């Protein structure tokens, strides 16, 4: 525990904007919790690799990265045991603003009757002391507000909605153990909610079982190619995108446009990648609840990703 604590503090206690963010826990086998489905996502927008510790975190990270107003994500972010500056402190777009600090989890835990995780720290001179071990969140999103000032939204992520209310809900347990796990889950959720609320930051509970399978498949497919470098001339790619947009409006499969350009200019795969990138960058607005198949007419009726999920990104509850 001491080694983990020291490593977490070295990554998280001196963050400055403009430096590469390092999560408290990396998506590697030696660090991730046992049984985790880890993944590392290379984001072109953020210019770094993001670390997801579950399939749900991977999907919601992709969803967040697709949002045009996203500025940054801090995944696996430490919750400070003691009072600390706002997560928004010092952001370049927030110059001249003074966001409220966060209260420490130790004080909040005392208030709500939650037993804070503790460990024994041994200093180099052999002295031992009991210290609070930091909790960590899942995804902290930084968004650009309508006035240009950034705000943050905290996403706590689970595979199933039921998991928010009970630890180890799928395991058999006695009534006493079940009540203990129900109480722990409720208080742990309240600890994190109150922590971020003290700085005016909203917490949203998101679960994978509330996301349509088609949306998950589409996000994953688009993310794979969203950052693929294209070597064709930019003006040619813009002309191609314009023709693709016309084909979408006409109800023609866009694969035909890619084939025509590929036959004339070569590199057909690059034109196909450009189609997916235009969708990812919201130059083409499609129904995300239908499979995105380039050899079929695109469905453009309803199902806009952020018309459906936009409330998850709002600074305050709708």
The helix tally amounts to: 9
The total domain count is: 2
Helicity range: 25-40%
Report the CATH topology name of the largest domain.
Trna Endonuclease, Chain: A, domain 1
Mean pLDDT: 94
* Quaternary structure type: single chain
Tell me about this structure.
It is a single chain. This protein has 318 residues and is an alpha+beta fold. The chain has 9 helices and 10 strands. The protein has helices at residues 2-12, 55-66, 105-112, 175-197, 213-225, 234-250, 255-265, 268-280, 305-309; strands spanning 39-43, 48-52, 70-75, 78-79, 118-122, 128-132, 135-136, 139-144, 150-158, 202-207. A 4-stranded mixed beta sheet has the order 3-8-9-10, sandwiched between helices. Strands 1-2 form a two-stranded antiparallel sheet. A two-stranded antiparallel ribbon has the order 4-7. A hairpin with a 5-residue loop joins strand 5 (118-122) and strand 6. Helix 6 packs across helix 8 (268-280). It is elongated.
